[in-house]
Amino acid sequence: MTPEEFKKWGYRYVDWIADYLSHPERHAVLSRVKPGDIRKQLSQAPPEAPESFDSILQDLDRIIVPGLTHWNHPSFLAYFPTTGSEPGILGEMVTAALNVNAMLWRTAPAATELEEHVLNWLRQMIGLSDSFNGMICDTASMSTFHALAAARESVAGISGHSVRDDGICGPGSPVLRIYASEQAHSSVEKSAMALGIGRRGLAKIGTDSEFRMDVDALESAIAADLLKGVRPFAVVATVGTTSTTSIDPVARIAEVCEKYQLWLHVDAAYAGAAAILPEQRHILEGCDRADSFVVNPHKWLLTPMDLSAFYCRRPEMLRRAFSLTPEYLKTAEGDSVNNGMDYTLQLGRRFRALKFWMIVRHYGVEGLRAIIREHIRLARMFVSLVEKDSRFEVVAPSPFSTVCFRLKAGDAENQAMIDRVNATGKTFISHTNLNGKLTARLAIGNSRTSEEHVRAAWTVIAG
Ligand SMILES: *Cc1c(COP(=O)(O)O)cnc(C)c1O
Hints:
Layout: H1 3-22, H2 37-40, H3 53-64, H4 86-98, H5 109-126, E1 133-137, H6 140-159, H7 163-166, E2 176-181, H8 186-194, E3 202-205, H9 215-227, E4 231-238, H10 250-260, E5 263-267, E6 292-295, H11 297-300, E7 308-312, H12 315-322, H13 353-387, E8 392-394, E9 402-407, H14 411-423, E10 430-434, E11 437-443, H15 451-462
Parallel strand pairs: 2-3, 2-4, 4-5, 5-6
Antiparallel strand pairs: 1-7, 6-7, 8-9, 9-11, 10-11
Helix pairs in contact: 4-13, 5-13, 6-8, 6-12, 9-10, 13-15
Bound molecules: pyridoxal-5'-phosphate (PLP).
Pyridoxal-5'-phosphate binds next to helix 6.
C-alpha cells in the first residue's frame, strides 16, 4: 500500500468508524445471527488475487457488523460494558502503526517508561500507595494469574522449597491452598488449575447476607488446613464481585493474611475505577496492605479492549516466578531499567500504555470522574424504579453501577422476562444466580448510556 493509498483508505475507514460510533443503536444490541451464519457467508479458500479495500469494507458492513453483539450500543447493559472511546481508538491506531515490542527496555524505551508512568498516574487517581509497582497485562485473568504465580513462588522462602526450580511436585513440596470467597471471579479458579494448585486447592469461603467474604470463616478454614498439614499461601479478596459488585472487607482480610503470612491479592477489575471519585475512595480501604492488586481500565475507564493494570508490591517475586533470560536477550542496561519480559509469562508485549495516556489526557481525570459519577447515579435511579414496582425486588446492594434484581414470582418468570427483553434487540441485560435464584443483572458502563436508555430499559423490563 502506498502512502497515498494508505491515506485514502485511512480517511475512509476513520469516516466509517466515526459514523458507526455516532449511531451504534442502529444495530440490534444482541446479535441475531445463529451459529455458523457468519462462516457460511465467507469464501471457503483465501483469495489468490488481491482484493480492493472497497470490497472488504462492503463485507464489513454486510457480514461482520450484523454478526456482532454491539458493546458500543448505549443499551448494552449486560455483563460489565467495556467502553471504547475515540482517544483510545486513535491510540490503538498509533500502537499498531509503531508496532513496537516492549519485551525489553531497549526494544521500546518509551513504551516501557510510559507504561510505568501511566500506571503511576492511575495509581494516584485511585489513591493507592506508592509502594506498588505497576505493569500492564491484557486482562484481569492474566493479572490474577501472575499474582498467584508470584505468591506461589513466595512460599519457597518459607518452606525451603522452590517451585521455580523443583516444580510443584518437587522434593518437600507442600500441598498448597488459595482462599477466595464463593463470589470471586472464575479467573481465580482457572489460575489454580493452571498453576498446578488444582480446583480443590482453592477454598471457597462463604459470604454474608450482602455477598461479602465471611472473614471468620476464612480464618477457620486456614487454621483447619494448617492442622491438616496443608500450606495456605494466598487469599484473593474482591472489591466489586462479578455477580453483585459486593466489596469484601479487605482490611480485616489483610489482618488475617499478615497473621498467617499469606499473599493478599485484590481483584478490583471493575469497581477499582470508581475509586477515582473522592466519595468512593473508601472502597479501597485496606488495599494498601495487599501484595498485589488489579483494576481494568478496559472495564470502566474508557479504554478499548484490552488493558489490565496489575500492581504488585513485591516485584522481586514476579521476577523469581518469570525471569529467564536467554543469551540473545541479555542487554547492557542490566538492572538500571525494567525489562517487561522479566515479570511476565509472555515475551512480546504490546504498547498498550499509549492509548491510556491519550485517554487520560483527553478527558482529564475530572472528565473521567464525571462519567463514572453519572453511571452510579443512573444505577441508583434504576434501583428506585425497580423498588417502586411491587412485582420486582432488588436482590443485592448496588454500590456501583450494577443492579441485581428479579421478579418475585420465580425462575421461570425471570427467564421469560430476560429472554423477552433481549429478543427486542433494543436492550441487553444478563443474569446470575443468587441464593439459588435466577437473578437479572443490569450494568451501566458505557459513556453513551444516558438516562433515557436506562428508563427505556426499565419500560421494556417492566413490560
Ligand atoms: C471482569 C472481571 C474479571 C475478568 O476480567 P478479564 O479482564 O476479562 O479477565 C475478573 N474479576 C472481576 C472482579 C471482574 O469483574
